[in-house]
Specification:
The chain has helices spanning 31-37, 59-69; strands spanning 3-10, 17-20, 40-48, 72-74. The protein is α+β, with helices and mostly antiparallel strands.
């Protein structure tokens, strides 16, 4: 089963992306995360399946998070975080 995903990038945090299943589905994202995220820019729209390969996330983890919380926030790899 495919889930339509809309991926937004953060204007404040490089390498941080927010996956939603509704183009305007920000209501499920906690306000504190949205404040840290800053202005969002839609960068990708695609159908996500459990088998799909993603660059920096596991498709099953993304799907589970979306099902449980209504969103998935992808953070940059730990070795790319500022000290």
């Amino acid at each position: 089963m495919a889930v339509r995903c809309y991926v937004y990038k953060s204007s404040r945090k490089p390498g941080v992306y927010l996956y939603l299943t509704d183009r305007e589905g920000f209501a499920n994202v906690p306000e504190v995360l949205l404040d840290l995220f800053g202005k969002s820019e839609l960068v990708l729209e695609f159908d996500l399946t459990p088998e799909r390969k993603l660059a920096r996330a596991d498709a099953l983890e993304v799907l589970d998070s979306i099902e449980q919380y209504g969103y998935y926030m992808q953070m940059p790899p730990a070795n790319h975080l500022p000290v």
